[in-house]
Amino acid sequence: MAGADYPRKRTAIACEICRARRTKCDARKPACSKCMELEVECVYRKPNLWDREPVTAAATAALGKVDSRLDQIQTSISTLAEQVANITKSQASLRLSTEYSSPLAAFSPPENNNSPRIDLLVNQPVQPYQRKPDPPTYGILTSSRSHGHRMPNLLSFVSPASLGPFSYDYANKFFSGEVINGDRLFQSMEECLHMADFPPDFSQQTCWRLQRAFVDGFLKWLPLFGEETCLHHVRIAAASNFSDTNTSTCLSLFIFALGAMALDDRFYHEDPVQLPGFVYLALAQRMLRSLTPFIGDIELLQCQNLFSAYLGFAIRPVQSWNEIGPVARECMITLKTDWRRGDPETTNMKERAFWVAYVMENELSVTLELPQSGILAFHESVPLPTSQVEEEGLYYFLALISIRKLLAEVVDTVGFKAGHALYVPIVAIELRNQIFDWHKALPPSLQFQLDASPLFDLRKAHLRGQLLCLLVVVYWPFVLRHVEDYAKGQQEACNEVTAAERHSVHERAKQCIEYCIMELKAAEGIMMQKTLVSHPAVRAFYSCLVVLLLGYEAVHHCQPPPEIAQLITYAIEVLSMWDVVPFMREPILRVRRFAADLGFTSPGTHGV
């Protein structure tokens, strides 16, 4: 009826910020989600514009603060774009270690139920921490390239004066030693082939045992192909007693070599001849060189991937990086061809070969601070691997691919360069959200709590370690920013806005230290056993330990409580188990000396 007076639907009114940004507003009171995320004042327009009161001085001031905040956001985004452009163009690009990774979050909005927190016993009354005067030096800076105050890693670190004298440049010595060890390795492979004392064991029992170890120790981590493919190639090679020169025999020999490595309990073998499966490796490498290198031959790509993986498993990272480079380049050339023209199974194998090369090269390039081949540019055009059968390692592999993609993004956008923090809160929020979204999206078989509880599934433990290291990488600039702010705060008065901002920075700096603590606790299991990811895991552990040693007092402004002091001492002992690796001896000694200077433990070496 025309005269009926129907009730009108109540509509939500967007706040002024969302109106200006043309984004959807949830109209929450007193502040919508977007304004809370941006940490700006949320202002709503009154529904009846005719009854609106005149704008007061307070309202004008509030709008001025909003405009100022938006200007800061725009400036931050512009600065980030410029920094990323410089990173792309410059040879001395900003690279952070994820030590580990490797453990991200940054200038976050007020805490909510979706943001995990870590409770630490750090509020106990303690006495101001007194450092010993004139501590010793811990390394010599000889490199001419610009370091910046990046997160500490195994190769180099330039400490700001406010954090102490813990600066070093170990890169030249590390690479010199690894090149010598690599030459010795390849020379030993040549000599092994001419010695009758090292006959390969091709008995049926041994071959079966090594295949099973290969599946558990490699395919469940990096499913380059399925178990049926493994069995298929071994059957073909066994028909000729592994004497025919073909890709099936070559693949089988690499499979046996990796299987033997997976069965070995020792962290490291300094003598190459003592490496597990060394005879199989030498035979496979010689056969690989004799095969015609057809570009795009999937089985040759698989052989090269396995060779690089063995070297990484044996903690020969420089040689592993040197071997994965040609694989990555060949993958890029193949992707420029009509590579999908073959049957679906072959296409899927090529996709797997690409992603294994992608993960391995990305991991090695970040930890060794070496340039990548350019394979990152192709990751959007290659589908993720699939399988027609249930493969235990495939879900883990997909999760690893996604977090390595995210790691590349974090390394390229968050850091500390030329003495100035890349302090971009909005970008840090987005990276933090992506990390937590990744964690929430894990399949049930890979889900884990974001805490330090023991994980006997080492693949889960590795994923958790990667996540925690990413959090540390993103929060590290806030530690440096807080140190700068604290020094300035002792000399000048702060207005209300500056004080609030410094408080927020301080909270994020504390988060960096907390995630370091969590990583040192959580990584215990994966540090106790040699796996395919031991090399990046050890480097990540080292970085988090150094950040904790450098940053705890600088962030909390007090002596670490007994729980943290005990953790530091224990972490040093865990790290010291890896001093059997030649390139780890000097970094471990450096950390022990630094910790002793801070009063945590006595200097010395630790052998296993």
Oligomer: single chain
Helix content: 55-70%
H/E topology pattern? HHHEEHHHHHHHHHEEHHHHHHH
**Which strand order do you get reading across the main beta sheet?**
1-2
Choose one word for the global shape.
globular
Mean pLDDT: 80
The overall number of domains is 2
**Stretches where pLDDT falls below 50 for ≥5 residues?**
48-53, 87-148, 416-421
How many strand segments? Answer: 4
Distinct helical segment count: 19
Structural class: mainly alpha
- Biggest sheet layout: 2 strands, antiparallel
Strand content: under 5%
* Rg measurement, Å: 27 Å
For the terminal residues, how far apart are their CA atoms? 91 Å
What distinguishing features does this structure have?
2 domains; 608 residues; 19 helices; 56% helix; transcription regulation; EcdB-like_regulator; DNA binding; two-stranded antiparallel sheet; mainly alpha
Task: Give an account of the 3D structure.
This protein has 608 residues and is an all-alpha fold. The protein folds into two domains: 69-106 and 156-174 and 424-608, no CATH class; 193-392, no CATH class. Helix content is 56%, strand content 1%. The chain contains 19 helices and four strands. The protein has a two-stranded antiparallel sheet with strand order 1-2. Helix 9 (298-313) packs parallel to helix 11 and helix 14 (458-489) packs parallel to helix 17 (534-556). It is globular and about 85 Å long. Residues 48-53, 87-148 and 416-421 have low confidence and may be disordered. GO terms for molecular function: DNA binding; DNA-binding transcription factor activity, RNA polymerase II-specific; zinc ion binding. Residues 14-44 form the Zn(2)-C6 fungal-type domain.
